[in-house]
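User: Just a sanity check before I run the rest of the batch. Below are the C-alpha cells for the first item. I only need the designed sequence back.
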C-alpha cells in the first residue's frame, strides 16, 4: 500500500521551520512599534493582533508601542488645526497636543487593546506618563545648522520599566502610547513612537525591536532602485543616515540606538503585508531589513 498523502503536510513543514526560531526567542522580550497602514486597515489590524497573541502564546514577551499619525492628522483636520512636519517630526502646538493625547490614549490604544483582548484577557494599555514610564524634555531638532522650535515634541531622557516588567511578569501584553511628561517643566510631550520604542527596547534589554512601516524595508539606492537591504551593521546604517528620506530617519535612528544599547537586532518590516511579524521572526527567509550591532556581523540572525 502506498503511503496516504496528507494535504496538511506543508503546514507541518512550516511549523518545523519555525522550531529553531521558537527556541531562540522563547522567554525573550520583543518590542514592536505599531504604525503606518497596519493601524488603519481593518484586516491588517486584525492580523497584527493575531501575530502579537501568537508571540505571547509561543513564549515570547511582546511589548507594543504605538503612535497614531493618520488618526492624529484626521482629528487635527476636523478641529481646523494645521499639520506641519519638520525633520520628520510633527510640529505640536498646545492645541495640537490636546488632540494628540486624546487620539493616542483614547482612540488608538483603546482599539488596539480591544483587538488583542478578543483573544483573551491579555492586553493592558498605558501611556508614557503612567508610572513615569517615559520621561521627556523639549526636543529641538537641528535643521540647516540651527535648532528649531517644533513645539511640544519630546526627547526621551529616562525610562522606568517597572510597570511594564510587572505586566510582563503577570503574563500581560503592555500597549504603550508614545506621550511623556517632563520632570523639568511639567509639560506633556508628543514623543515620536519610533524613538519611544527604541528607548523602551534598550531599557528592557529586549531581544528585538521591530518597526512596522509602509515600505518593504531600507532600500539600497532609493529612488533609483527598489532593492531592499536585508541586513546591515550599526556602522553601515550610520553612514546611510544623512541620505535617508525624512520619514525614515526616526525609524532608522531608533534602530541604531537600540542595537548600540544592548538590543540584539532591530528590524524594519513591511506592515502592509499580513502576518509580517511572524514571517520575520519565525521563517528562515525573513522579511524587511535587519540591523545588527557591529560585533554581530557574520553571526546567525
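Assistant: Here's the designed sequence for the first item:
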Amino acid at each position: 500500500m502506498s503511503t496516504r498523502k496528507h494535504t496538511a503536510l506543508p503546514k507541518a513543514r512550516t511549523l518545523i521551520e519555525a522550531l529553531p526560531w521558537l527556541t531562540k526567542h522563547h522567554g525573550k522580550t520583543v518590542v514592536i512599534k505599531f504604525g503606518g497602514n497596519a493601524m488603519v486597515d481593518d484586516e491588517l489590524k486584525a492580523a497584527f493582533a493575531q501575530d502579537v497573541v501568537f508571540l505571547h502564546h509561543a513564549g515570547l514577551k511582546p511589548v507594543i508601542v504605538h503612535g497614531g499619525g493618520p488618526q492624529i492628522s484626521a482629528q487635527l483636520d476636523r478641529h481646523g488645526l494645521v499639520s506641519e512636519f519638520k525633520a520628520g517630526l510633527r510640529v505640536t502646538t498646545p492645541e495640537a497636543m490636546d488632540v494628540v493625547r486624546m487620539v493616542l490614549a483614547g482612540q488608538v490604544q483603546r482599539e488596539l487593546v480591544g483587538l488583542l483582548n478578543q483573544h483573551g484577557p491579555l492586553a493592558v494599555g498605558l501611556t508614557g506618563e503612567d508610572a513615569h514610564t517615559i520621561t521627556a524634555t523639549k526636543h529641538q531638532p537641528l535643521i540647516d545648522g540651527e535648532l528649531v522650535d517644533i513645539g511640544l515634541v519630546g526627547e526621551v531622557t529616562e525610562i522606568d520599566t517597572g510597570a511594564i516588567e510587572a505586566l510582563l511578569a503577570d503574563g500581560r501584553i503592555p500597549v504603550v502610547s508614545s506621550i511623556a511628561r517632563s520632570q523639568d517643566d511639567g509639560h506633556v510631550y508628543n514623543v515620536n513612537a519610533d524613538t519611544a520604542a527604541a528607548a523602551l527596547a534598550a531599557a528592557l534589554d529586549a531581544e528585538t525591536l521591530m518597526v512596522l512601516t509602509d515600505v518593504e524595508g531600507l532600500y539600497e539606492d532609493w529612488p533609483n532602485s527598489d532593492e531592499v537591504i536585508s541586513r546591515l551593521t550599526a556602522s553601515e546604517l550610520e553612514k546611510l543616515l544623512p541620505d535617508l528620506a525624512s520619514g525614515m530617519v526616526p525609524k532608522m535612528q531608533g534602530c541604531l540606538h537600540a542595537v548600540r544599547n544592548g538590543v540584539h537586532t532591530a528590524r524594519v518590516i513591511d506592515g502592509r503585508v499580513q502576518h509580517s511579524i511572524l514571517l520575520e521572526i519565525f521563517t528562515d527567509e525573513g522579511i524587511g531589513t535587519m540591523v545588527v550591532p557591529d560585533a554581530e556581523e557574520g553571526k546567525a540572525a
